[in-house]
Amino acid sequence: MSQAIPSSRVGVKINEWYKMIRQFSVPDAEVLKAEVEQDIQQMEEDQDLLIYYSLMCFRHQLMLDYLEPGQTYGNRPTVTELLETIETPQKKLTGLLKYYSLFFRGMYEFDQKEYVEAIGYYREAEKELPFVSDEIEKAEFHFKVAEAYYHMKQTHVSMHHILQALDIYQKNPLYSIRTIQSLFVIAGNYDDFKHYDKALPHLEAALDLAMDIQNDRFIAISLLNIANSYDRSGDDQMAVEHFQKAAKVSREKVPDLLPKVLFGLSWTLCKTGQTQRAFQFIEEGLDQMTAHSHKFYKELFLFLQAVYKETVDERKIHDLLSYFEKKNLHAYIEACARSAAAVFESSCHFEQAAAFYRKVLKAQEDILKGECLYAY
């Protein structure tokens, strides 16, 4: 009878697997995952180690869903199915395992665009942060918290966390993708501060780094973020130019990103009165929905059709704003309501315009009230 493999040895290998996940190195992560699964079959009994393995399977799938959305790997369970596995023993967990359980659940909620829920889990995970000794893991925590607060437009809180994350990532060249993503968050926060001149250098640095590591996905995302920054600053010509560059890379290399790029391009063209061109891209974007699951962007494309077609579909606009309200996406409410108000105002429908401007003001108030999300 062969001797059982010590669980400590398998634990070390799971740690190596997690390193590859955090570096977004799919081939290495896949190899280590397979090795761990083989070792577990011959491992001495250790329930905590099996929970650690289940948590890492969940985190592994989150990575794959982010980098390769829509792609399936054999008969593996989905991230939703894996969620049930890690939720079952959660009440029994303590220390580092409890931290991972809460932190990874927060990441899942963030991917579902449930930002308030995500922040709730991150706050609980933060209580277990003293059990985390690894500097990269601390950077991961600060990055994910910063990302969530950025989307909730809690700009100062986001910047506080992202600078801590970037300081660690920049000292570790293996984490170039997280460095790029951190630069995105910093630039986004500067855009929200309306310091567009400070945002662009960070986005250009991110693009340079993405080109250095020859990562098509992050080249496309960098171009998209540069386009969005130009759009927010009012430079429509540069915005359209960079949206088109991002669309070219997306069509050729990263098709799952294309709906997001086409939405940004379409909206900019609509706002500048180029609705005929915009509606061509809207149709292309909606066609992509059959190949890639993007309910969120489908709703946004339908919003553009509702606002910018010859007869404005006011009911559809209200339906979309209600959808955002349920998810507490106040920044989207503000932007969409502002566009609707401008269209009604331009056609001298001042009563409707005033109603949507009131929604803009309400969304701004809700954003300002957001500090209640992190009040202890």
What is the structure about, briefly put?
With 376 residues, this protein is an all-alpha fold. The protein has helices at 7-22, 26-40, 47-67, 79-87, 95-111, 115-126, 135-151, 155-169, 176-192, 196-212, 216-233, 236-253, 258-271, 275-288, 295-308, 314-326, 330-346, 350-368.
> How far do the termini sit from each other?
56 Å
Largest sheet, in brief, is:
none
Helicity, in percent? over 70%
Radius of gyration using CA atoms only: 22 Å
List how many beta strands DSSP finds: 0
Please, what is the average pLDDT?
88
| Overall body shape | elongated
- The run of helices and strands is HHHHHHHHHHHHHHHHHH
- Class by helix and strand content? mainly alpha
Low-confidence stretches: none
Note the beta-strand portion: under 5%
Query: What is the number of helices?
Result: 18
Account of the protein in words:
The chain is an all-alpha fold and 376 residues long. It has helices at residues 7-22, 26-40, 47-67, 79-87, 95-111, 115-126, 135-151, 155-169, 176-192, 196-212, 216-233, 236-253, 258-271, 275-288, 295-308, 314-326, 330-346, 350-368. α3 (47-67) packs antiparallel against α4 and α15 packs antiparallel against α16. It is elongated and about 80 Å long. 44% of the residues are buried. It holds the Pfam family RapH_N. InterPro entries: Bac_ResReg_Asp_Phosphatase, TPR-like_helical_dom_sf, TPR_rpt. Keywords: Cytoplasm, Repeat, TPR repeat. This is Response regulator aspartate phosphatase. It is found in: Cytoplasm.
